[in-house]
Each structure stands twice: as C-alpha cells, then as structure tokens.
Amino acid sequence: MGSSEERVVAVIMVGGPTKGTRFRPLSLNVPKPLFPLAGQPMVHHPISACRNIPNLVQIYLIGFYEEREFALYVSSISHELRVPVRYLREDKPHGSAGGLYSFRDHIMEESPSHIVLLNCDVCCSFPLEAMLGAHKSYGGIGTMLVIKVSAESASQFGELVADLETKELLHYTEKPETFVSNLINCGVYIFTPEIFSAIEDVFKQRKERANLRRVSSFEALLSATKALPADFVRLDQDILSPLAGKKQLYTFETLDFWEQIKTPGMSLRCSGLYLSQYRHTSPQLLASGDGTKKATITGDVYIHPSAKVHPSAKIGPNVSISANARIGAGVRLISCIILDDVEIMENAVVIHSIVGWKSTIGKWSRVQGEGDYNAKLGITILGEAVDVEDEVVVINSVVLPNKTLTVSVQEEIIL
Amino acid sequence: MKALILVGGFGTRLRPLTLSVPKPLVDFGNKPMILHQIEALKEVGVTEVVLAINYQPEVMLNFLKDFENKLDIKITCSQETEPLGTAGPLALAREKLIDGSGDPFFVLNSDVISEYPFAQLIKFHKSHGGEATIMVTKVDEPSKYGVVVMEEGTGKVERFVEKPKIFVGNKINAGIYLLNPSILDRIQLKPTSIEKEVFPKIADERKLYAMVLPGFWMDIGQPRDYITGLRLYLDSLRKKASVKLASGPHILGNVLIHESAVIGEGCLIGPDVSIGPGCVVEAGVRLSRCTVMRGVRIKKHACISSSIIGWHSTVGQWARVENMTILGEDVHVCDEIYSNGGVVLPHKEIKSSILKPEIVM
Q1: What is the pTM of this model?
Q2: According to the UniProt entry, where is the signal peptide (chain A) (predicted)?
C-alpha cells in the first residue's frame, strides 16, 4: 500500500456524565474532557498529537455527553486544525469496543487504511507517528502503546506480556490479582479496519451462545445482576485478550511519561507534565518574566494572554492561569490551576490547588494542598464561584460551588 | 392580593438534594416545598405569587407552569442579578406587587413551614391599621436569632434585638409578613436587610405590629431541621384529623404515604415518615423518622431511620441507613451496607459501609 492510498482516521473516546463521579466537584461544572490542563482542554492534547499523523483525514470524538457540550469546542478546533473534528453521541455506554463498532459507518466513510484509537483521560506524549510506522512494519491488525511501571502499581491496569523481539502481544489480563507483568496497556491503539470484523465476531459468538443455552432461572437471576448487557463490548477484555498470541496484535513501548487522569488531583499532576512537554514542543506557550516588567516566573508556567498578573507576584513551578484571571500584587502561586475569571488579591498564597471559575481569594489568605495527587483530600479544590475571605486558611479541602469561606478549614469537604 | 416569596440562591445547606433541583422544588411531605406556601396563599385569595430568585429560573418556570394551571393562580419570577438581601427583592418586584388596589401583600421566606394562618393575619393587620405586620414564633433559645420585643396586648413592636445576650423576649421573626404597599417607598433597589434596616424604622414610627404564629414553625433549609420539620408537619396533620395520614397495623405514629407507593408485607413504618409517589417498599422493611422521595425502592429487610432518601435511589436488602444519612438523586446503596450519617452526592453506588458521618462525592 503506497502512502497515497493511506488515510488515517483518529477516534477519541471521551466518556460521559454518569461515569465521572471521581472528577467531582470539577465535573459539576464542566465535562471532564473539557477541563483545562496546561491551558488547553484535556481532549485538546490527544487531538493536538494527531496533527503529527501524516494523511490524517478525520477526527471523531465518541462519548455520551450531550452534543451541545462539545459543539463550540469541536467547531473551533476543526477550524484551527483544518481537519474535520466531529462529536458522535452514544445513546448509552457500549464499552470502548461497542462504541467504536456502533459508529463504524462514520469511521469507515473515508475508507481509512488505519484507525487511531485514543482515550481522552490518558496523559502521555502520544508518539503516534512513530507508532504508526511500527504498526505498518508489524503487519498485524492492531498495535497498542505500552509502558513499564512499578510492579506494585501494575495491578491497577491491564497487564500484558510481549515477545521481546517481535513485539507481538502474547498475553493480556485486566487488573489481575497476582503479578503477571509490569508492562501495561496505555489506552492508545492503532488498528486496521479488520478490527471491526473482530468485534463483529464477538457479537456473533454472544448471540449464538445465548440462543444455544437454555438459561436456568438461577442463571437468569445472576445474569440480570452481574453480567453486562450483550451490546457492551470492552476492547481489552473482550477483543484484544482473546487475540493475544495469534500474531494479530503487537506492542509499541513508550519511555516517556504516562498517567491516567481520573481525579482532580491527577489533573493537576498531568497539567504539570504537559507544561514540561511544552518546553520541547511549543516553548512559545510558556511564560517568562523576572519581576521587573512582568511577574517572576519559575519553572513551567502557562498564562492566558487575557490574564493580568502583577509584576510583584511570583508564579511557578507548574502553574496554569486561564482567561481573564487577575493575580494581585505579592501573590505566590505554586503548583496550581487557576481557572477563568478568578481574582487573587494581594499577598495571597496558593499551593497544590485548583481554584474554580470566578472564585476570589482574599488578601493574605492561604489556599493549600499537601500535594498527594492520589489522596482523596490531597490537593485543595475550590469549585465555581467560591469566595475565600481575607486571611483565611484552606488546607486539604474540597469546596463545592457558590460557597463563601469566612473561617479557616482543614481536611474538610464543604457542600 | 399579591405575594412575594423570597427564594434566594443556591440552597447550598440542603445539598446534595439541591444539586438536583432548586431548593423550592425539593419535596417536603410529598410535595415541592414551595407548593405548601402557594396553596395556602391561594386559599386566602392571593391571585399572583412572585418568586424572588437569583438563579435557575428556567427549571423553576417549567414546574411553575404546571402549578399555575392546576391551582389557577399566576406565578412569576423576579430575578436578581446581584444578591439584594431580604428587602431589595421587594423593590425589584415593585411593579408586580402594586396593583392600585391599595391591598397589602404577603412576603414569605421560602424555607419556612408552618400552618400559614393567613386569614387570621389579614384580620389582625386590618384591625390595627399599621403599615406592616410580621408573624413571630416562640423559641426555646432566642439568643440564637433576632428577637422581636413587642407590647403584650396590642402586639405593637417596640424593637428588634439581634442575638441578645440577656433575655429580652422569646419571640423571633418567623419570616412571614403582611405589608402595605407604602412600604415599597422605604426600600431602594440595592442590597438591603428588611430586619435590620426597614422594620426597625417602621417600629420607631409605631407602625409595625407582630402576631404570634399559632401552631408549628420550622426553617427547613438544612437536613436536620428538615427532618424535625417533617415531624411537626405530620403532627399538625394529625391534629386536623387529616385523611392523608396512613393507618393500619404496619403504621406507627404519623405517616404519609402517597397513593401510588407500594408497601410490602411485614413492614413497620413510622413514626414521622413520608413516602413519595411511585416508591416501592419491599417486605420486612422498617422506616422511622425519614423522608423517602419519588421513585425510591427500598429492598427487603432494610432499616432506615433519621435520614432522607433522594429521588430514584435504591436501598439494598438488609441495609441499615441511619443518623442523618442524606442520599442525593439516583444513589444506590448495595445489599447489607451500613450508612451512619453518609451524605452522598447524586449518581453514586455505595458498595462499602460508611461507619462514621462523611461526605461521599
């Protein structure tokens, strides 16, 4: 197949509202895929990585949020990338393979030779061009991005075993109880259109099994409460795992960073990872300053052009400031995400926190988290329109939208 | 006659319930909180109710269209663009409240439940000829509130004392007023407090009167008071020998069960329970001092006390839910789980027990 016949379609799974309760309270105001990391919506990072794919013809976002949540973003990003980006809404969750399969007509519309499948809540360098090259040389129906992690953390993910030389996928298990391997599935895949036949086979097998067996009443009770509906097909367990060892699936290892963005704490960490990536890919996005005309900047910092930062403030490392925010004199910001329209008054300090849209932080107040991105109250999160009064201290707490804090709090969730 | 109901803002104290609907639409005794007030107003001849709100008018307006038709009363919203306090909203709704008839208009705080003796209030107001009448209620601990000091026989208000340190009286402002239109000349369109700025002036002019609210009173703006309020409300239904209360061998004390709810065999329900439309309570369930909202399923052998179960939630078999557990909309407590004061946000599944009060997001 010459490159003139090559056409690539990218598909990004974005999920939907009932799935993401772990991302509260931020998800109370914005769909998780649109929450900003390093100044750009979460979904923007995988979309942006797709730019590097030669012969990219279309990008699809598949999820079960309402269309109107994505309408604005999708039209502006299509315009910017000059590649059509469309949001396709599932009527209900079908699992990652089910979702891909239900929109196969759209995906195959441009007769792509390759399909890139990404999960929106994966934070990594998305080495798609190199991965595509590797996939073509392997000649299988799919290639998955893999990474080595510590043995202890591996059990949270899909563990896999790959042939050291051919890189073929030999074995795959999802969240095993005993140790299988410290090589895990990153949630980034490249497929040829044959993947749809593989998914279709699974549907057929399920139908046949359902017809053949006379289900006893006890089994029927079990299946009603335990099993997933017949049209819920998971990519990893139901499709890839059975194909392991059959010379169909291959692996491509990344040595760069990789994280899953499941909680607000992780979004702060991943914002930092993307900011440090900007140093190589888009250094013009990072702020600079030494306290004379512009504020002192240390480490990787993103400041939206419309935000105003007083020159006596010190910002960074790992700070992202969104549109129309106002940072007052003598403010110190370390490891935080400051969302749109926030006002931070003089001499306030914000560390390891996320400050929600339109919130205000009073003079000399201190908003701080411990910095444990995985703990339930490891960073401080202020929801939309939260007002922290002067001199108040907020530590390791989560505050829901539209609250005013008049006294200091620690380790609390405030509804 | 007209009425203004001060609905205000986000109802954050009643979260997680108010994460699903605006506070006035949270059900109390099987109907939206605000409907209790609107029905009582309709009964004394109020033809138009204005809701002073500062957010989510669309959700409110949809519901209100429904009530407008059923009750044959006009309901409109007056939306604040900035918080106007407790008096500012009156200025904002001025055009709607003055109809040239010179009739006084009601102002109610939306969180308050009581017997709403509006006919008596109108009679008293006409008899004293003052400019404003406020209802007051007796409380045990007046220094938590603003106390109204009034003349014994006439009810003429002498002064207001905010959180008094020594005992000056035991009557506090109940949040129900009947005001002459002339009061609107005293209120500017800016954040103003009716208790701190407007009423004291009228009291100085000896034109403010207070009437003691007969019957029960409660501010149900937070879960603990909501549950206490339900007890008082059901008690008042009992006193009126209301047919709405349930009866039978499986009923203890005052219990309200919607006609479309289904109750299984061997249950013991009450005291002080309300069960909403479409609920299914399976066999062997014990419910006491709790509110079960629309569409909830309580599975067999479960035991719930002093809690609020939000719309369309389920409580599993043999689960025990108690001590101010508040389940938001669509929360599913698995079988055999124990919740001691869990406050659970909407759309969650509780798969492990909550041993001490905590918020589950």
Answers
A1: 0.84
A2: none
